[in-house]
Specification:
Blueprint lengths: L1 H14 L11 E5 L4 E7 L5 E8 L8 E9 L4 E8 L2 E10 L2 E6 L4 H4 L8 E5 L3
Antiparallel strand pairs: 1-2, 1-8, 2-3, 3-4, 5-6, 6-7, 7-8
Length: 128
C-alpha cells in the first residue's frame, strides 16, 4: 500500500509538469524496501542540489552510488552520470515533496531483488 501511495504522488507530480518547490525536496530519505539512504540539499536558488545516495546497512553498508554530486532539478528529476567500467550509466532521482524514486540505466530491479545492497526503488522523506 505504501508503494502505491508513493507511485501515485510521483505520477501526479510528473503529470503536472514536474513542478516541485525548490526547498520542498531538501532532506533525508530512506528506502521503503531496503537499506538505501539519500540526502538532498539545495545549493542555490537556481535549483542546483547536492545529493548523496548510499547503502546505509546490510552487507554493503557504506557503499556509495552518488557521492555529494550536484545536479539541477529539471521537471522533477535530478540526474547523475557515472562510469561503470566502459559503460556510462545514468542514475535518475524523481522527486516530490515527500517521496522519491531512484532508477539507474545500468542496474536492473531484478538484479537487486532480495539484496541488502539494493538502492533502486521508492524512498520516503524522513521527518525533521
Amino acid at each position: 500500500m505504501k508503494n502505491a501511495r508513493i507511485a501515485t504522488a510521483l505520477a501526479l507530480t510528473l503529470a503536472a509538469g514536474g513542478a516541485v518547490a525548490q526547498g520542498a525536496i531538501d532532506g533525508t530519505y530512506e528506502s521503503v524496501d531496503g537499506f538505501g539512504y539519500m540526502d538532498i540539499q539545495r545549493v542555490n536558488a537556481a535549483g542546483l542540489h547536492r545529493v548523496t545516495l548510499m547503502v546505509s546497512g546490510g552487507s554493503c553498508g557504506g557503499e556509495v552510488l552518488v557521492d555529494k554530486a550536484a545536479a539541477t532539478l529539471r521537471a522533477g528529476e535530478l540526474g547523475f552520470d557515472r562510469r561503470d567500467g566502459r559503460r556510462t550509466c545514468r542514475t535518475t532521482i524523481s522527486v516530490t515533496p515527500g517521496a522519491a524514486r531512484v532508477s539507474d540505466s545500468c542496474i536492473t530491479p531484478e538484479s537487486e531483488e532480495g539484496s541488502t545492497c539494493a538502492l533502486l526503488g521508492d524512498y520516503e522523506k524522513q521527518a525533521g
